[in-house]
Amino acid sequence: MKKKWRIPHTYAIIFSIIIMAAVATYLIPAGQYERGEVGGREVVVEDSYQRVEQTPITFFEVFTAIPQGMEKGAQIIFYIFLVGGAFGCIRATGAIDSGINKLVYRMEGRERLLIPVIMLIFSILGFTTGMSEESIIFVPIGIAIARALGYDTIVGTAMITLGAASGFIGGMMNPFTVGVAQGIAEVQIFSGFLFRFVVYLFILSIAIWYVMRYARRVKLDQRISVMYDIDIQTKQYDTATEQNKIAMFNFRHGLVLLALGVGVFINMYGVFNWGWFLTELAASFIIIGLFSGIIGGLGINKTFASFVDGMKVVAFGALIVGFARTILVVMENGVIIDTIIYALSNAISNLPDTLNVLGMYVVQIILNFFIPSGSGQAATTMPLMVPLSDILGIERQVAVLAYQYGDAISNSIIPTSAALMGYLAVAGIPYERWVKFVWKLILIWLSIAAVALVIAVMIGIS
Hints:
This is YfcC family protein. Pfam families: DcuC (PF03606). It is found in: Cell membrane. By secondary structure, this protein is mainly α. The chain is about 70% helix and about 5% strand. It has 20 helices and four strands. It has helices spanning about 10-25, 60-70, 75-90, 95-105, 115-130, 140-150, 155-170, 180-185, 195-220, 230-235, 240-245, 250-275, 280-295, 300-335, 335-350, 355-370, 375-390, 395-410, 420-425, 430-460; strands spanning about 30, 35-40, 40-45, 50. It has a two-stranded antiparallel sheet. Strands 2-3 form a two-stranded antiparallel ribbon. A hairpin with a 2-residue loop joins strand 2 (about 35-40) and strand 3 (about 40-45).
């Protein structure tokens, strides 16, 4: 009897890509663009690509690239560990379980409304603030809500992250993607708002339908869940007996949730007004976690024990961020990233006129795997795409749209996305399980964006 084929281990998948990137440094000519500074941003100088000496990655350098990747991904990695530790303290107080249990009781008969409401809220944060890595801090709360409603870990993660992703794709007021790209393209900042808003409505509506459809099926039969075996092993499904063990909501629980709410508000205010990012957010969550442990009645020793336990839970996924960053390190050390950009840019100019914009779109999707930073991809590719759009007779606004959708949509599935690997780490979802859940939605999103780009060319959006 033949053995059933099994999806490779998550680390095996990432390591295979690292090996392929290393092999590519022998096959792809090394080359570089000159780079200059414009408005405080490093951008590629047009027509500056030139071949350089080949620097293929040796067998040993493949392995030295892994600690280098860990080092370059350290901020995200330790952010995940520290946030995981903070939520370990909060979970240990029982405040989230008892609070969610009370919320679900009060929402009896209207539970499904939580999914679209939460996704709408996070989509607004996505298109106004470019929420990406920041969504990681809300994933444990989303999971707690989903479990209490009889759903699985995937639903809890998806309603937070795909909500934020829908807004990020819409990008109407996203300063880190649309703002940067339009600035480089010399297009009025945040122009084309109405067109982007209409596309955003389609993107968000499809995402809500997709998550609610999956949630409904899981609630009817939990064995359908792509996380069923893992959730069972980690006792993430509450039986009726276990629910009876949840402590009644009390004053201490209220204080813990108040501390969490105030802390999250301060974090978001810090992001908007004080320029906070991962370091400040991590520090804030350490304070929230330790404070919650103390006021939640854990005591000093149990608070820190819970903090360590929380970090253990996310260790598997946190380190994947470093492995994923290794792929980029290998290509950077092999000096082949600019060659890939150069080749893809040239390929676009050879396409028929009606397919030029879709060619630009596909190029941005491919490049997002190698340059998952939205602002980084804008700074790298827009100086190339803008003159190309001028030559091809395509409005610069359309070139920005091609970048915007090519950058944003695949962030929810590519393994080089630090945000994706971060929230999967916090949620305890193996990468391959997430892909199994989300790939159809990604294809739908990609199709919507492709149609939108064609329409944008037809109506001459500028």
